[in-house]
Design goal:
Length: 266
């Protein structure tokens, strides 16, 4: 969501509801003007027939479908980000447990580095950054991989060292995957299309209301509020760390606490 991500949701909501309200007013008063200009039609002006109501129903149905698809897309990405947090915490937790079986020198070095790495991952996870991992996390990845080389050359069982290497590598891969998932957004063109389609639909609604000279202000305003809310929810879910709906980082927090308790218990 490029530049939209920098605007407060409240401001975007205000702009949306004003835009949709203006669209309804445009359709309503345009229809009144056409009826006034065509007095010979005996009150049956453009857009006043029952077929126009059926057309509006079809248009609003398609709008609901488009909003549903967009909501499904951002919800799937939200769920992907949530699952990736758990998978990274599981991979790091498994790495930690396997490290504790290593011989003393390698175990101590790897444990300290992994604790610092989890701290760095938590810092990145709880900030709004969409870019790569923090410089500290990247440096710790290199240090962990160097230490892993020392483990491979040590007298630890090959099966154990291979297990530590596999889960450590999986942890690094998941960090990159989480970075990519955080940077994935609903294409701008899709969101703009939703707004344009909603505005055009409201123009048609206003025209139909104007044809019958019944604005139905309360019902129309409720519809505009609902349309604005669903647009805001879609936009909020598309903001991985800047929105109000956030993926919980509790799995990583619990892992860090367990690591600390494990060290104290030794």
């Amino acid at each position: 969501m490029s530049w939209l991500s920098s605007f407060p949701l409240s401001l975007i909501g205000l702009i949306l509801i004003c835009t949709l309200s203006a669209a309804v007013a445009l359709g309503y008063y345009s229809q009144l003007w056409l009826k006034q200009a065509d007095r010979d039609s005996a009150g049956v002006g453009p857009g006043s027939g029952p077929e126009q109501a059926h057309l509006l129903t079809a248009v609003l149905g398609l709008l609901a479908l488009l909003l549903g698809f967009s909501f499904s897309m951002v919800m799937d990405r939200y769920e992907t980000r949530r699952i990736l947090v758990i998978e990274e915490a599981n991979a790091l937790g498994t790495t930690w447990l396997r490290i504790q079986i290593l011989d003393a020198p390698e175990r101590q070095t790897m444990s300290v580095l992994l604790e610092r790495y989890v701290d760095a991952r938590l810092v990145w996870s709880e900030t709004g950054a969409e870019g790569p991992a923090t410089p500290e996390a990247e440096a710790l990845q290199r240090q962990l991989w160097t230490a892993m080389g020392d483990v491979l050359r040590s007298g630890n069982p090959p099966l154990l060292t291979r297990g530590v290497m596999d889960t450590l590598n999986e942890s690094f891969d998941l960090a990159v995957t989480r970075q990519s998932a955080r940077g994935a957004h609903l294409p701008d063109a899709v969101f703009y299309s939703l707004i344009i389609y909603a505005a055009v639909s409201m123009v048609m609604l206003g025209a139909l209301l104007g044809a019958h000279r019944k604005p139905h202000r309360t019902q129309t305003m409720l519809l505009l509020v609902l349309l604005t809310l669903i647009h805001l929810v879609i936009l909020d879910l598309d903001r991985p760390r800047a929105g109000n709906i956030q993926v919980s980082q509790q799995a990583l927090i619990d892992l860090r606490q367990a690591m600390t308790a494990d060290q104290i218990g030794r």
